[in-house]
Amino acid sequence: MAGATTYGDGSTLNREDLKDLLTVYEPQMTPITTLAGKADAPQALFTEWGLDAYDTPEFVAQEEGSDVSNFDNKAKNRERVGNQQEKLRRTWMVTEEQEKTKTAGVKDEVAYAKSRCFLEMKRDAESLIASDQEMQSSNPTKLRALGTWIQTAAQSVNPVPAAYRSPVGHINTTATGSLTDDDLNGVMQSLFEQGGNDMARYTLVAGPALRSAITNLQRSVGGGAGNPYTINQDAKEHNITLKVDEYMGDYGRIFVVPTLFNGRTSGGSLTDQAKARGYLIDPDMIDLLYMSSPEMKELEDQGAGKRGYAKMIFSLCVKSPLALGKFSATS
Prior knowledge:
Elements: H1 31-35, E1 37-38, E2 46-51, E3 79-84, E4 86-95, H2 96-100, H3 109-129, H4 146-149, E5 171-172, H5 181-195, E6 201-206, H6 208-216, E7 220-221, E8 229-230, E9 246-249, E10 252-258, H7 272-276, E11 277-281, E12 286-299, E13 305-318, E14 325-328
Parallel strand pairs: 1-12, 5-14, 6-10
Antiparallel strand pairs: 2-3, 4-13, 6-11, 7-8, 9-10, 11-14, 12-13
């Protein structure tokens, strides 16, 4: 008797079993664009805003009977900074044949294409904001991203005035494997020395390596076999917490939010440098400036099938670089 060849000879009528399931296992959370405020729509491709600073405290004794002869211009410390608008776009199309074909996991091909297009553009915007891109004034215009707003050196285009650039202490480059409490508190102290607010509530948008390093700050490694962790925790909880979502330091409170979009290049993969990147953000200090809010456009079907695109035109307003910190290790 010949052996069975259920699918081998092509002569059977057995149906294939294809589940009504389509899985896209990709990151979708975009914390920075979620955190940022939404300001009034700009009226030009280049938007500016003002910075100001108080004078250094002084206590000069005044002689009795002396007249006032010198007057201070209280506008003398004012400076202007700005950013360019940038246009992002993602396209989609569905052939007539594909639209009429029953596809596993997809009830409506056009709706799926539009939804995916929007989500991909949202990821593009998050990656752009969290990158090191510098501003570009020529066509196409490009916005300055967080990584370049937060730097000690002068930017190459329309640089931030020296008095308002990030101090050295705002930026930590310690490898994540060597990160200590002093590193984290050092950045917070530097921020406090500028703003003077020891009750500040920051959000640290952290790559996975940085997030893990901060969690490790609560652990002490024992000397026994397997190097077990020692964790101080109420035994009544009947569980062991091995992560840090909130960190309370001497100069404020940090809420730690993980991300996979920091420090990327356009079209680039998740590198060790991206995994170690983190931005310490006061959410009140960043806004998104939408010249054109995210929207979907459907174009004429010229025979190949339905098609269209999603687009947005926006910029990033950093109200003061002095209010933001950065962790920028290479590993």
